[in-house]
Amino acid sequence: FANVVLQCLTYTRPLTAYLLQGSHAKECRRNDWCFMCELQCHVIKVKESRNPFSPIRILSKIRNIGNHLGYGRQEDAHEFMRFAIDSMQSICLDEVGGEKVVDLQTQETTFIQHVFGGHLQSQVKCMQCHHESDRYENMMDLAVEIQGNVESLEDALAQFTAPEWLDGENKYKCDRCNAYVKARKRLTVHDAPNILTIALKRFQ
Question: Which of 113, 152, 163, 190 has CB 3.0 to 4.6 Å from 117, enough for a Cys bridge?
Answer without folding.
Answer: 113
